[in-house]
Amino acid sequence: MKKYRTKYGLELIAFIFLVFASFIFVPHENAADLDLLLIPVILFFLFVFLGIKYSVDEKDVTVHSSFFSRTKIPVSAIRKIRETNNPLSSPAASLDRLEIFYNKFDSIIISPVRTEEFLKDLLAINPKIEVIRKPKRNIFSKLAL
């Protein structure tokens, strides 16, 4: 069994920091009450972020969304994997993500740290998986109209 941790994206960490900072540094009427509420919320986010991990064995991909929640996906049921930056809520702590389509209508979005190795491991088990890459963009592609 190979284990992968989630990729932590600066964009999500900065967003969460800005949200929490706005509560801490912007004066509020009931600042003491708000601070008491903020501590459990911060601990909850840490709990969720630190609990995200993935594992691949010879039959399944297991997505651990937190310390208590996990989803098992049979590798044989995976139809395609698409690179995405979809910001929907998912067990992924980065916007550099993979969307896994499995069964007939199911999908899940993840962000493993070693994406290429993760894909290689899945393709070794199920070579029928279609991998859809994002087009590579460079700094000049926006300038060329």
From TrEMBL:
<feature type="domain" description="Uncharacterized protein YyaB-like PH">
    <location>
        <begin position="52"/>
        <end position="126"/>
    </location>
</feature>
<dbReference type="Pfam" id="PF06713">
    <property type="entry name" value="bPH_4"/>
</dbReference>
<keyword id="KW-0472">Membrane</keyword>
<dbReference type="InterPro" id="IPR009589">
    <property type="entry name" value="PH_YyaB-like"/>
</dbReference>
<feature type="transmembrane region" description="Helical">
    <location>
        <begin position="34"/>
        <end position="52"/>
    </location>
</feature>
<dbReference type="GO" id="GO:0030153">
    <property type="term" value="P:bacteriocin immunity"/>
</dbReference>
<feature type="transmembrane region" description="Helical">
    <location>
        <begin position="12"/>
        <end position="28"/>
    </location>
</feature>
<keyword id="KW-0812">Transmembrane</keyword>
<protein>
    <submittedName>
        <fullName>PH domain-containing protein</fullName>
    </submittedName>
</protein>
<keyword id="KW-1133">Transmembrane helix</keyword>
